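User: Can you predict the 3D structure of Tetratricopeptide repeat protein? Sequence below.
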Amino acid sequence: MRHPLILTLCLAGTVGLSACDKMRGQNEVDRALSAVNAVDENNLSDIMLTVADPNEAVTYFTRSVKDNPDRIDLQRGLATSLIRANRTTEAVPVWKKVVEHPEATNDDRVDLADALIRTGAWAEADKVLDSVPPTFETFKRYRLEAMVADSNQEWKKADSFYEVAVGLTTRPAGVLNNWGYSKLTRGDFAEAERLFSDSIRNDDKLFTAKNNLVLARGAQRNYTLPVIPMTQVERAQLLHTLGLSAVKQGDVTTGKGLLREAIDTHPQHFEAAVRSLRALEANATN
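Assistant: Sure. Here are the predicted structure tokens for Tetratricopeptide repeat protein:
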């Protein structure tokens, strides 16, 4: 009579072990799937923050934040996507929410300051930057500090911040252009010309710096184009800028000549230069 009982116990044990094995296997599968989903989600978030259409990214992160309201990485993604989509007014409250999160970093505070500057809230941006410890030294922080100092006409501070920012990046063209524009607005045309030239040396495709360089030269009544890389269209546009600068300086005849050269140089019809020249000629006739 013992044998059936032992057989029953063995069968029960086998069934129990089989159930445990199934449960263990299911847990391992669930963990593996969770890991795969996490990797896929991170990859998708990276794609949304880089190559995806900015408004599509906003939709994705809006939905993700709704499903996971406590996740700071998704809130950052939404704020960043709104900036990429040029929806800065909407981005500010999202960045503020990020900064209030327990896991917020100094980078988040700098990004909030950036969003505030984009909306013209300079005083508030200044306060946010003041809340960042001075030991937190990044290119973006110092670039924003320089811009805020510029807005407050604190020129020595601005120059100091720009200089530090240039030293903290391998691509200084943009900040050199900003620094040059700051010098241009102060009337320091020679120094502005030097900084714009440095900017172009670092990025010869930055047309804004090329145009600003021509403005700095024109302000010094130097009406020759600088020796820099330029396309035919860019050459025409720069001649147009130089012509208008000459007119502003009172050198109207020189300005007209430069505008005519701009029209002749452009490979297509240069409507802006044509209008400028017609306006000058009509004014002279009257």
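Residues 2-50 form the longest helix (49 residues). The mean pLDDT is 88.
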